[in-house]
Every structure is written in structure tokens, then in C-alpha cells.
């Protein structure tokens, strides 16, 4: 039996901080690469642990890590600068020359406003999904802790509604202008065209994100109370936005062979939480044991990946 996650072209990893998202996403990407799949691992988490795990300096462009595996770490500051540069490019020829300096000043001020880095990150996410997916068999996203992940995944819906409102206002303004001119001729409006193109890209990404044949959502949790509660809330919140989480990685399971009193008490506690997980979640589950050291080297990551491979290809 093969886990369904293996057949998807886009896979998002989310979860509470500290549960092992980056390790799980990296181990999964490494497993795919060993299976011969061209894989791109993308970190949207500003903490950026992927480069540390592979001990490579990563940037916003794909860098080869191993055979069939490349990775990107998205830098929010660089993406915000690139995003605002793109906004300025779009305004070329649309704003009178005597106003352009003031418009650019306002755009630069907007770089520090709430949501600017979020908009830039979203723009990069859209470009990766639409422009890179033909070059790779699977794109694996390692996202920031739960709240940021939910916000990122629901942005296509929110931005689509926002841009619909902008288009309606432009349409109304253009109709009024045409009526005022009295010739009934449609008004040429480059801003409307730009907004319409963005609407089409947002709609394309949303279609990909909602297509369960293409996209999988994985939440990583530990068999402990707080990660379980946070995962329950996240799964319910994403369901309200038509996003279904179908796979869980239960990470850092304690070794059963240790017979010390301390570990036996912890293992008994873990049994309780594993029963809670199995009763509360009907998602496919992948169980990963706790290693005896940090996963901060390629050798340690291979150990996690090999265990994950056993779970992904059960009975083969």
C-alpha cells in the first residue's frame, strides 16, 4: 500500500512551532528525490531551518542539494523589495511624470506597513506554483507555524475577493467616464488589464490549492496535548476555507525498548495521546520515532527519510 501523499504534485507541511515541520518536509523531499522524482523544497518560514539541515546556503532561487532535489528559502525582505519594484514597473506610463516621484515615495512607505511582506510572500507563492511546477514532479512547502500557514493558504480566497471589488470599481468608473464622453466607446484602462491578469493568476492558484488530485496538506504534531489541540483547531479552520488536511505526521515517538522508570512513565502518557490522535483524526498517519540526537546533518536526515519511506510504502 502506498500513501496518497506520494501522488501529489504540491505538498504543504504545517504545524505548531517546534514539532519538526522542517525536518519532516526535508525528509519527505529527500525520500521523493531518492525515488527519482524531480523535487523542489521551498521554505516560506522566516526562521529558515532547511538550509541549516542540509548545511547549504540557500536563496530565493532553486539550488541543487542532492540528485533530483533543489531548494529555495524565501527571504521576506527581498521579496517585499522585488514585489514593490514590480508595482512601480506596472505604473510606468500610467502616472504623469510630475507625479511619479511622489507615487514612488508612497510605495516605498508602504513597504513598512502591515501586510506588505505577506502580500510579497503570497506573490512569490503564486509564481512558484504557476511557473515552477512544470520543471518539477513535486513542490514541497515548509511553512511557518500554524497561524501564518492558515493565513498563507487562505490568501488566494481573500485576495480573489479583494481584486473582484477593485475590478468592479474600475468597471463602474470606466462606464461613468464613457457615459460622460457620450460616445459609448469602451475606455482603454491598463490598470484594469493588470488587475484582470492578477485575478486570473490568483484563480489559477486557488484551483490548484483546492484540487485534491494535485495538492496535499500535511500537519506535523507530537503526541502531546498542545500540538494535538492546535492541530484540531487548524484542521477545522482550513475546512471552513474548503482546504482538507488528509495526512498527519506524528513525530518524535519515544523508543519502546527503554525500560527505565522515567521512560516507562512517558511512554504510558504517550499511549494516551496516541489514542486521542487516532480517535480525533481520520487522516492518513505517518509515525516517526525520536532520534537520539539533533537532525542537523544530512546523515541524520537520511535516518528520518528512511523511516518515512517505510511508512509511505507500507507492505512493499
From TrEMBL:
A Pfam family that the UniProt record links to this protein: ArsA_ATPase
Source organism, top-level taxon: Bacteria
The protein's name: ArsA family ATPase
Family: Belongs to the arsA ATPase family.
Domain ArsA/GET3 Anion-transporting ATPase-like span(s) in chain numbering: 10-309
Amino acid at each position: 500500500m502506498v500513501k496518497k501523499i506520494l501522488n501529489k504534485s504540491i505538498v504543504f507541511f504545517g504545524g505548531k512551532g517546534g514539532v519538526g515541520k522542517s525536518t519532516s518536509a526535508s525528509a519527505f523531499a529527500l525520500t521523493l528525490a531518492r525515488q527519482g522524482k524531480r523535487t523542489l523544497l521551498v521554505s516560506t518560514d522566516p526562521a529558515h531551518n532547511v538550509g541549516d539541515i542540509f548545511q547549504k546556503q540557500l536563496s530565493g532561487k532553486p539550488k541543487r542539494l542532492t540528485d533530483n532535489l533543489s531548494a529555495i528559502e524565501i527571504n521576506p525582505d527581498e521579496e517585499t523589495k522585488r514585489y514593490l519594484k514590480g508595482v512601480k514597473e506596472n505604473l510606468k506610463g500610467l502616472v504623469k511624470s510630475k507625479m511619479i516621484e511622489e507615487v514612488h515615495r508612497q510605495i516605498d512607505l508602504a513597504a513598512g506597513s502591515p501586510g506588505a511582506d505577506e502580500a510579497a510572500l503570497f506573490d512569490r507563492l503564486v509564481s512558484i506554483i504557476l511557473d515552477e511546477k512544470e520543471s518539477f514532479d513535486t513542490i514541497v512547502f515548509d511553512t511557518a507555524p500554524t497561524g501564518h500557514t492558515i493565513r498563507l493558504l487562505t490568501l488566494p480566497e481573500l485576495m480573489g475577493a479583494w481584486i473582484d471589488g477593485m475590478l468592479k470599481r474600475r468597471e463602474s468608473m470606466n462606464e461613468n467616464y464613457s457615459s460622460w464622453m457620450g460616445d459609448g466607446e469602451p475606455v482603454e484602462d491598463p490598470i484594469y488589464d493588470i488587475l484582470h491578469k492578477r485575478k486570473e493568476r490568483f484563480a489559477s492558484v486557488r484551483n490548484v490549492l483546492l484540487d485534491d488530485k494535485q495538492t496535499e496538506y500535511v500537519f506535523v504534531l507530537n503526541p502531546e496535548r498542545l500540538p494535538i489541540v492546535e492541530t484540531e483547531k487548524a484542521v477545522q479552520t482550513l475546512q471552513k476555507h474548503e482546504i482538507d488536511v488528509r495526512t498527519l505526521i506524528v513525530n518524535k515517538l519515544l523508543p519502546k525498548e527503554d525500560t527505565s522508570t522515567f521512560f516507562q512513565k512517558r511512554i504510558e502518557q504517550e499511549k494516551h495521546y496516541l489514542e486521542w490522535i487516532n480517535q480525533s483524526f481520520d487522516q492518513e498517519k505517518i509515525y516517526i520515532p525520536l532520534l537520539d540526537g539533533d537532525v542537523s546533518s544530512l546523515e541524520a536526515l537520511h535516518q528520518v527519510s528512511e523511516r518515512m519511506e517505510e511508512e509511505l510504502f507500507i507492505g512493499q
